[in-house]
Each structure stands twice: as structure tokens, then as C-alpha cells.
TrEMBL record:
Origin: domain of life: Eukaryota
Record keyword DNA-binding present: no
SUPFAM superfamilies: Arginase/deacetylase
Protein's recorded name: Agmatinase
Cofactor: binding comment: Binds 2 manganese ions per subunit.
Pfam families in UniProt: Arginase (PF00491)
Cofactor: Mn(2+)
GO biological process, one term: putrescine biosynthetic process from arginine, via agmatine
Length: 394
């Protein structure tokens, strides 16, 4: 008898599932069809609303994700022009519904910030000189507007998806115009401060001076950098038979933390070294060359170097650096043709999420009140004005 009852109840359950469904009771089409799955819809970064920001100078936002699909300045394997599309595709399991960052303690997509996917800069692959001019002009367009937050007098913050690493030069040019000399935290296996004459070619041109290993040298020549820049994750082989590359790097104003250092001091030790080198409250720009990760964690990149950090370690470092005001960031050198099972794009899309989380957690920039540091602010999570940062978040 008991068995019989159980059978009937199972049959009822199955019948109900098969025959009944509930439709949203609403005339609002958004309530009926406005939801997307991670695998449906057009790929924008994290399903963010998309507007081609370059086409509307009156459009305001707080954080813009912008793709720069340029890879004509690489010295080895190309393919990073496909980076923005691949990173967007790999970000599809991110959306505001399930966006709470347990490491940061916030959902960046459900906080004070208006975050847009600004689309791509349609940068030419034909001519590096022209490309540099286009990118410089595009960042001026994007940053020459006010943030959306209240009566903000500050520009929005941009998270750039590369593209090869050369694209940082036009970014730094424009950030310099707003903030003055920029402090760059440069996560990379390579120095990227090489002079153009350090490349093994007898043939040179103005365009050849601009490449993904010289752009920080050029940034220094143009006076865009502060004195407190940091390379983290280095493990490149050096030119010649001595320390000449490091000596030249010293002259560009970078401190160096080599990849192997993590074996001695751990993740916390690396973070401590970075913090000790920077005056407290220094506004920073974070540039993540995905080749800072070990090729086992990021095979899809042009100039892979073995012996690198794990994604977990890099994420932890980025989270620990959120006490420094973050004025902008990039994730570059993702080359999808060399990727395996989207490992590299997944890493890049998550790193972008962490950097966006930091920007949201820190609150909006107020150039007027604190000369490029952050001002006090209110939002849903913190009603109490605490000045500079919302301290209780840290
Ligand atoms: Mn690089």
C-alpha cells in the first residue's frame, strides 16, 4: 500500500512538471523576455549594456570597458587583435544577478557605478603610426567627459581589453593630461622598457620604434611616468652578457619584482614589497600583461615565458592592492589563436572583474576635493561618510 502511494505521488509530480508551466503575469515585455542565460544574447563584457561610447560625447558613465583590438606592434606571435572578442565571450557567466565578489565583498554590477561596455576602438592594423594616433585620439574622446556619478567633475575610469601591450602608450598619454605623471603597476614577465635600438634589426623607422616592448621606454621619454613604477612577475631573458637591460630599466623609474621572488616571500610578501615602494594613497594604473601568468595558466599569448605565477596568486595580489586609488587598468596580450579551451580568456575576463570590483569598491574619483585621490561617498552599503575611502570596506 505504501509503495502504491509513493508511485502515485511520483506520477503526479512528473505529470505536473510535464504539463504545467508558469508565465510571468505582466504586460511589461522586459519582465517576460528581458532575462538572458550565460549562453544567450550578444556578447558584451559581463552582459553589460553596450553603447559605442566613441560615437556620443554626451554619454556619461563611471566605468567603461573598452576593447582595443590592435596587434600590429608585436615582436613574436600575433593574434591579440582577437583578444577583446574572446575576453567578452569568456565573461558570459558574469552578470549582475550573480555578480557578488566574495573577495571584495561587493557586487560591482549592483552598486553606485554606471558601467558600460563601450565597444572597441576601430584601430587600423595597417600602419602603427596611424594606429597610435587613432588610439591617442580615441582615449581623449573617452576621457574628455565627466563621470556619470552625481555632479562629478572627474572623468570616467576605463578598463581596456587588449590588444598587444603597445596600447598602454596612448592610454598613459591621456591619463597624464588629467592626473600628471602616472604610477604604473606593471604585471608582466617582460620589462617592456627596451629602447628601440635594443631590437635585432638593422632596419628602423619611426613606426618600428613603437612596439609592445618599447612603449614604457617611450612613455618615460615623453615624461608620462612617475618615479615609483613597479614591474611584478619578471622572468625574461636579458640582452647581451650582463645586466644592461636592468640598468636601462632603472633609468625609466621602475622597481623590479621577479617571478621567483614568490617562492621566498609568498603572495603576501610580494604585496608587502609593492606597498613598501609606494607612498600610501598613491593613485595607480594597473597593467596586466597576461603573460605574467605561467603558460599553464595562460597559454594563449604571444611571448609566453615559463615559470610564472598562478591566476589565483595574481588575483590575490590585485585584491590586496585595492587600498591604492585605481585610475585605470588594462588586460593585454591575450591571443586566442594560441589559447586552449579558453583558459587564457577566462583568466583575463576574471582579472577584469577584479579590477572593476576594486574601482567600484573604492568609490568615485573626485579630482576637485582630493587632487586625484578619492573622496568620501555614500551608497547602499555605506551610509556613513568616512572621507577618502569607505574604511569599513577594507
Ligand atoms: Mn608586456
Amino acid at each position: 500500500m505504501i509503495l502504491m502511494l509513493k508511485l502515485v505521488s511520483i506520477l503526479c509530480l512528473v505529470a505536473k512538471c510535464a504539463l504545467c508551466f508558469e508565465q510571468p503575469d505582466s504586460d511589461d515585455l522586459n519582465t517576460i523576455w528581458g532575462q538572458d542565460w550565460p549562453f544567450s544574447g550578444i556578447n558584451t563584457y559581463a552582459h553589460l549594456p553596450h553603447t559605442k561610447c566613441l560615437l556620443d560625447k554626451n554619454l556619461t558613465f563611471d566605468i567603461g570597458v573598452i576593447g582595443v583590438p590592435f596587434d600590429s606592434a608585436v615582436s613574436y606571435r600575433p593574434g591579440a587583435r582577437f583578444g577583446p572578442q574572446a575576453i567578452r565571450a569568456a565573461s558570459q557567466r558574469q552578470f549582475s544577478f550573480r555578480g557578488f565578489n566574495f573577495r571584495a565583498g561587493i557586487n560591482p554590477y549592483k552598486s553606485w557605478a554606471k558601467i558600460l561596455d563601450c565597444g572597441d576602438v576601430p584601430v587600423t592594423p595597417m600602419d602603427s603610426n596611424l594606429a597610435l594616433n587613432m588610439m591617442t585620439s580615441a582615449y581623449k574622446n573617452l576621457l574628455d567627459r565627466k563621470s556619470a556619478y552625481e555632479d562629478s567633475s572627474s572623468p570616467p575610469r576605463l578598463v581596456t581589453l587588449g590588444g598587444d601591450h603597445s596600447i598602454i602608450l596612448p592610454i598613459l598619454r591621456n591619463l597624464y593630461d588629467i592626473y600628471g605623471p602616472i604610477t604604473v603597476i606593471h604585471f608582466d614577465s617582460h620589462l617592456d622598457t627596451w629602447s628601440p635600438i635594443d631590437y635585432p634589426s638593422y632596419w628602423t623607422s619611426t613606426a618600428s620604434e613603437f612596439n609592445h616592448g618599447t612603449m614604457l621606454w617611450k612613455a618615460k621619454q615623453e615624461g608620462l611616468l612617475s618615479k615609483n613604477n613597479i614591474h611584478a612577475g619578471l622572468r625574461t631573458r636579458l640582452s647581451g652578457n650582463d645586466w644592461g637591460d636592468y640598468e636601462a630599466d632603472d633609468r625609466t623609474g621602475f622597481h623590479r619584482i621577479e617571478s621567483d621572488r614568490i617562492l621566498k616571500v609568498g603572495v603576501d610578501g610580494i604585496v608587502e614589497e609593492i606597498k613598501n615602494m609606494l607612498p600610501e594613497g598613491t593613485p595607480i594604473y594597473v597593467s596586466v600583461d597576461i603573460d605574467v601568468l605561467d603558460p599553464s595558466a595562460a597559454p594563449g599569448t604571444g611571448t609566453a615565458e615559463v615559470g610564472g605565477w598562478l591566476t589565483r596568486e595574481l588575483i590575490s595580489m590585485l585584491r590586496s592592492l585595492d587600498t591604492f586609488p585605481l585610475i585605470g587598468a588594462d588586460i593585454v596580450e591575450v591571443s586566442p589563436p594560441y589559447d586552449q579551451s579558453d583558459i587564457t580568456s577566462f583568466a583575463a575576463s576574471h582579472i577584469a572583474y577584479e579590477l572593476i570590483s576594486t574601482m567600484v569598491k573604492q568609490g568615485p574619483i573626485d579630482l576637485e576635493s582630493h587632487n586625484s585621490n578619492f573622496h568620501s561617498f555614500e551608497n547602499n552599503q555605506s551610509k556613513e561618510k568616512t572621507g577618502f575611502f569607505a574604511k569599513e570596506w577594507f
